[in-house]
Design brief:
It contains 6 helices and 9 strands; from the N terminus they run E-E-H-H-E-H-E-E-E-H-E-H-E-E-H. It is of the alpha+beta class. The longest helix is centred in the C-terminal third of the chain and has 13 residues, at about 160-174.
């Protein structure tokens, strides 16, 4: 899919319950960073008084797409959750240096790896750099497919609107 300014193969795990909920209420992907930021501040399935929201959050609440929240009796209840988890982004590249650059775009969101058409001549330099940046390296040739560097597992440090927006972009384009 086309994401973050490049073509990538995105490996993800669908959140079946959230996907079914969205299908059931006719809700699609969320895209507004302000809405996502506001939603992150609300607990899931627990009513919160609208008057307790900041002015900015109340403005974002007015822009929330159908099916994401329920506003009733002065209370807002969040229903939306992340519709999937991105496990790995694979990017194709002609050179490992370009692959590091392109795969680096995904660093805040998921594990990443590059796919090269052949074995680099400067193999040790490539291994050192790829390992340092946590980018996996896979070489695909007519003879075989070989993993030269394993991708570093991704560990989310915190939930952010940008991270959720990336997930929603993948969900919309899947």
């Amino acid at each position: 899919m086309s994401v973050l300014g490049t073509e990538a193969l995105i490996c993800y795990s669908l959140n079946g319950a959230e996907h079914a909920r969205r299908v059931g209420v006719g809700a699609g992907a969320l895209s507004s960073p302000d809405v996502l930021e506001m939603l992150l501040g609300l607990p899931v399935a627990m009513p919160v008084p609208v008057r307790s929201l900041t002015e900015r959050e109340r403005v974002a609440l007015r822009a929330v797409p159908h099916g994401s929240v329920c506003v009733q009796d002065g209370q807002v209840t969040r229903h939306a959750a992340a519709p999937l988890t991105v496990d790995l982004a694979l990017v194709g590249a002609r050179t490992w240096r370009k692959g590091l650059e392109v795969a680096g775009r995904f660093a805040p969101f998921c594990a990443r790896a590059m796919v090269l058409p052949g074995r680099p001549t400067d193999l040790e330099e490539m291994r050192i750099q790829a390992d340092f940046y946590g980018v996996g390296v896979i070489v695909v040739s007519d003879q075989a497919t070989q993993v030269l560097v394993e991708p570093t597992p991704f560990h989310r440090v915190r939930h952010t609107a940008a991270g959720w927006q990336f997930v929603e972009m993948v969900y919309r384009n899947r």
